[in-house]
User: Fold this.
Amino acid sequence: MPRNKHRREFLKAAPLAVATALSINTQGAESAPGTIREPARDVPVAWDCDVCVVGGSCTGVFAAVAAARLGAKVALIESSGFFGGVATAGLVNIWHSLHDRTGQQRIIAGLTWETIERLRKRDAVRAGGHYVLNTEILKLELDRMVVEVGIRPFLHTLFVAPAAEGGRITAAIIEDKTGRRAIRARQFVDATGDGDVAHRLGLETYRREHVQPPTMCCVLRGLGGIKKTHPGFDIHRVVFDKTYSQAIPPGYAWSAPVPGSDDLLMLAGTRVHGADCSDADQLTQAELEGRRQVNSICELLCEHFPGGKGVPLVALPAKIGIRESRHVRALHQLTAEEMLTGKRFPDAIANGTYHIDVHNAKGAGVAFRELNAGVPFYQVPYGSLVPRGAKNLLVAGRMLDADEQAFGGFRVMVNCNQTGEAAGTAAWLALDSAADVPAVDTARLRDTLKKQGAAII
Assistant:
């Protein structure tokens, strides 16, 4: 049989073969139309621990490290082959200011500052109001932080579902190269970015009608040479100039140099409008569209601005940078009014100064709002990390409960990092005091965070 014909016949037969295999031992029960039925199975337990963190961004790593340093036995699940999330997989290499708006008071410290110091020793960070990171070195330092405290990492691992009894999660079901397994734990932290654990547990989540669009970053070279031969060249303006290309949708561009290099620039100049990246099919299309837009930028530069070093593209991210998707309904929703007025919370676990920054979900532009005059910083309360109805699950990172504008200020990494550190600490406290997460003593939480080096004000 010709090879192509054999392949066509196989593809026609494969769905039936798969459906037949998965229907074994169903005792005659029929599957619904358009579905297949998996037989029941016993899932082996890969590890027993105190705290399981799902999601290995910097937020998730900091949650795991915080819990482990307090004595917890910790598992950390990450779908990529390395840690760091948007900072590494997404190539977003800026951490914003750690000081208040006067520049006099450090309002962010803890594991964020420790990581910056680790990078500084390796000449992998540049400071100047904010911090520009070499994200490849960041990968290495996050590995060291995880290994140093004895965390059990699960890389290349997908979280599949929670196992629960009486409203408490008892295990995280995972899939990895070994197969389907389970990690049993007493406390869990959802650092997935999309609230996957909370959502699949059946806790209340929500998505706005229009979410802030994701961006596909890239690393380019040769722009210095282009500037020499084309005076006035501005990459942030050029990518949206219809004189050069009709293929790049309107948006907003920013960039940062790559520390340790002479002529490399990280560019965030794409937007994928209308993509809800908590939906698998939309995420797939967003990845493809983001790379198409990066390719259009490269073609534009090669065609209209010769003078660089050949093809300008050096690196594409492993994952598109997601600004917003699903949110968890928590005990407290952070509001723009609270942020702009700098409201102080008795259970505050994070501080920030990054302004409200809402990227247009349909077109160009960003809506900025600054803190009110005289407000040095804002705070994030512990209640925004506690899902309604949760007993032993906390959330950390961008799925936090916040209104649209407050989220536009909160979502940057230096803020998310702090929620990870707080969630890991709170998970340990819940274990230590035999309390459900809503009943964690927040005065003790703040005191423990402060003793661990966090800036608690």
Observations:
- Residues 163 and 169 are 6 Å apart (CA to CA).
- The chain has two domains: 46-210+325-451, 218-315.
